[in-house]
Amino acid sequence: MRFKASIQNINTFTKLTASLNSLGPLAWVKLSDDQVCFTIIPEQGTQVWAVLSIDTIFETYTVQSAANNVINLEVPLTSLNRALKSALNATSAQIRLTKKDNMPLLALTIATTSSSNSYAAFPTAAANNNEDGMDNLDASFGGGARETIVTQEIPVRVLGPDTVAGLHEPQCREPDVHIILPPLMQLKSISDRFTKLALAGAKSGTTASRSRLEVAANMHGCLKMSIKTDAMSISSVWTDLNNPELDPSQVAGGDIGIAEHPSTRMKQLGSADGRSEEGWASVRIDGRDWGKVMSVGRLGGRVIACFCHEHALILYVYLPSDNGEDESVLTYYVSSYSA
Amino acid sequence: MVVLNFTLVPEAAAKVHDLLVCLGKFSDTVAIEARRDRFTFTALNSSKSAYAALTLDGKQFFTSYECVPRHGGHDGRFTCSMYTKALLSVFKGRLYDPLGRDGAIDRCEVSVQDRPDQTECRFIVKMVCNQGVIKTYKLTYEAVEVMHALFDKNVAKNRWSMNSGAIKEYIEYFGTKTEMLDIFAGEDGRAVFKSYTEKISNGKEILKHPLVTAVAVNTSDFEDFNVQPGLHIIISVKDFKAIVLHADTLKTSLKAFYSQPTRPLQFNYGCDGFLCEFTLMTSGDYNAGATPTPAPQIPSRPDSRAQSTTSERTENRSMRSDMPPPIKPASRRTGRRNPGSRRVPSPKAGEPDPDSLFVGRAEEDSHWDPLDYNNEEETLGWDASADHEAAVFPTFRDSGSLSRTETEDSNEGVAPTQRVSQIKGLW
């Protein structure tokens, strides 16, 4: 079993781990020849299934294992994120799977030329004779004698193929409405405020359902976020958002499939000013959990929300990529509470 | 009768704040030892594995300093102990602020009231603020005998020193919950600071194991590095962090002195009449067998093993000779204090300036963190101040008793958003 890669985009990787960490402490990481998958399945709340193309975060990537060159790991995200943060000013960073005292770990080796190197009072000859390198340093760093090398060791668990065989991505019926979300910072600050108001009211009462946000969208570019308690009812409506066209090649049944697609029927209902009562597909979600989902906004991706009325909300977060070919997608499955 | 009076400029008072913050990380109480020529704060942690002595020079550090101990002639001393938190609530942060904002002081006067004819013994701190406000704090203290840790620099052959700012960068790489720090002198021109936790756990618990972080530094990045190659020495990472962060407030170099594992290690640093010494317990080899050559044998010196009170004098004398030479005479320095030319300390990196107009980069990312709804600070509530005069939205009532009856009849045509007082001129 071998995994080794240099990290090409430390910033993206750090933000990715931070976003995922807000939903759960542990990630199932699946490394294979052509992609890297991060999956968070918390005990309750939103699941994330992220599929990244290799070059979104890595370059010179090698993965080898007896099981079709696939390695499954369980990784503590807080430690991984902490380790990556120390690489933000790095000149280079490498990650590899290794073992120490029979315990598997991900070793992150970071070379930095921090300002500290300039504190040196005098250069010494000693800097030139480190050819043999230290046992825990990669030999390729031998030349960078002026650099400070930081190694971070993240404990991990290797998962066998049978352990992960039972984990399946949630299945969902075709959505009623799909819409591109407004900037997440906007959405987050409004939903945070709503949740806070609902919770402030809940201190006297004790109902847990107090922080339920209702999110709804129609096929005419409208998104509505509202919260209702005994004492108040607030809602915000966005209009002029984009409902992307479905691609016949991606929908089961092609053109006929599109004609029979629930969203086609939803197009007949509702209006673009968001005032109509009809044509909304809505879900009820937990405000706190939604706040954690919104954490993904730091990655700056384009987000398409798919609403299955009173059932689930699925967010597809497309990470910006350089070549525009293999896109990396984070899929969030948020299930709707019944009333 | 004890006489102890001294005065501090705001910069020095701020240094007292910083040192108390540091000592607070070691112990709940600090001991004070005042002598004729110097003033020392000491702290010993509860497990007695770390001892700190921070000495302020009577002439250099203070504007004025007077100490006449009850007895003992030249070597006499006044000692007491106080709660670190109590002192910290007096020596708050921001005592020194060139812009004179809230909390800034003009000077700080301290005296000790310890006379048999007075009913109360108190440690009295007077903060003279800029607007002529004087805040007087009277603190209780406990008379204690102050002990000193012994450290023989002559046997501590392994030495290094490094800019504290650089080490501060290294400790920022460390994971949050680690316990130990292994300082290793490699044979390849590198020194390694490794933070780790000894606890071994199994199964699922493994993933909760804190990060192991090793920072390999070129020995040429040290100002001075003279350590037996292959030597590991292990101390508490928490102590090390506290020391480095404090050394960084003074922008000096941190110097380390040690002989071998299980023998004490000392860090010291200081400037301008301020000398900080931390003596720490060390533990054995992290990787057994990595220290093939035995460290120099410690000659059994009878005096170095003697009881603290007797030998502490010799120790102190050597300490005094280690005080850095005065840079400028204190009197001249203070005499020339010119507010315009005073060097404004640069705001500490990593500690965001709350008044800054700029949003820090690190802060920007934290906008994306899920909101902590348990944080009460921003909760919406009622304004219970009953201060209607100062209310943002003036109402009719705020024009007070001013002839309400008089205007009552003619009130009808007035828009309710307008004050009666504003339209009064029309009649």
UniProtKB/TrEMBL annotation, chain A:
<dbReference type="GO" id="GO:0006289">
    <property type="term" value="P:nucleotide-excision repair"/>
</dbReference>
<dbReference type="Pfam" id="PF04005">
    <property type="entry name" value="Hus1"/>
</dbReference>
<dbReference type="GO" id="GO:0033314">
    <property type="term" value="P:mitotic DNA replication checkpoint signaling"/>
</dbReference>
<dbReference type="GO" id="GO:0031573">
    <property type="term" value="P:mitotic intra-S DNA damage checkpoint signaling"/>
</dbReference>
<dbReference type="GO" id="GO:0000723">
    <property type="term" value="P:telomere maintenance"/>
</dbReference>
<protein>
    <recommendedName>
        <fullName>Checkpoint protein</fullName>
    </recommendedName>
</protein>
<dbReference type="GO" id="GO:0005730">
    <property type="term" value="C:nucleolus"/>
</dbReference>
<keyword id="KW-0539">Nucleus</keyword>
<dbReference type="InterPro" id="IPR046938">
    <property type="entry name" value="DNA_clamp_sf"/>
</dbReference>
<dbReference type="GO" id="GO:0030896">
    <property type="term" value="C:checkpoint clamp complex"/>
</dbReference>
<comment type="similarity">
    <text>Belongs to the HUS1 family.</text>
</comment>
<dbReference type="InterPro" id="IPR007150">
    <property type="entry name" value="HUS1/Mec3"/>
</dbReference>
<dbReference type="InterPro" id="IPR016580">
    <property type="entry name" value="HUS1"/>
</dbReference>
<dbReference type="GO" id="GO:0044778">
    <property type="term" value="P:meiotic DNA integrity checkpoint signaling"/>
</dbReference>
<dbReference type="GO" id="GO:0000724">
    <property type="term" value="P:double-strand break repair via homologous recombination"/>
</dbReference>
<dbReference type="GO" id="GO:0035861">
    <property type="term" value="C:site of double-strand break"/>
</dbReference>
From TrEMBL, chain B:
<dbReference type="GO" id="GO:0071479">
    <property type="term" value="P:cellular response to ionizing radiation"/>
</dbReference>
<dbReference type="InterPro" id="IPR026584">
    <property type="entry name" value="Rad9"/>
</dbReference>
<dbReference type="GO" id="GO:0031573">
    <property type="term" value="P:mitotic intra-S DNA damage checkpoint signaling"/>
</dbReference>
<dbReference type="InterPro" id="IPR046938">
    <property type="entry name" value="DNA_clamp_sf"/>
</dbReference>
<dbReference type="Pfam" id="PF04139">
    <property type="entry name" value="Rad9"/>
</dbReference>
<dbReference type="GO" id="GO:0030896">
    <property type="term" value="C:checkpoint clamp complex"/>
</dbReference>
<protein>
    <recommendedName>
        <fullName>DNA repair protein rad9</fullName>
    </recommendedName>
</protein>
<feature type="compositionally biased region" description="Basic residues">
    <location>
        <begin position="330"/>
        <end position="340"/>
    </location>
</feature>
<dbReference type="GO" id="GO:0006281">
    <property type="term" value="P:DNA repair"/>
</dbReference>
<dbReference type="InterPro" id="IPR007268">
    <property type="entry name" value="Rad9/Ddc1"/>
</dbReference>
<dbReference type="GO" id="GO:0000076">
    <property type="term" value="P:DNA replication checkpoint signaling"/>
</dbReference>
<comment type="similarity">
    <text>Belongs to the rad9 family.</text>
</comment>
<comment type="function">
    <text>Acts in DNA repair and mutagenesis. Involved in promoting resistance to ionizing radiation and UV light, as well as regulating cell cycle progression after irradiation.</text>
</comment>
<feature type="region of interest" description="Disordered">
    <location>
        <begin position="397"/>
        <end position="427"/>
    </location>
</feature>
<keyword id="KW-0227">DNA damage</keyword>
<feature type="region of interest" description="Disordered">
    <location>
        <begin position="288"/>
        <end position="359"/>
    </location>
</feature>
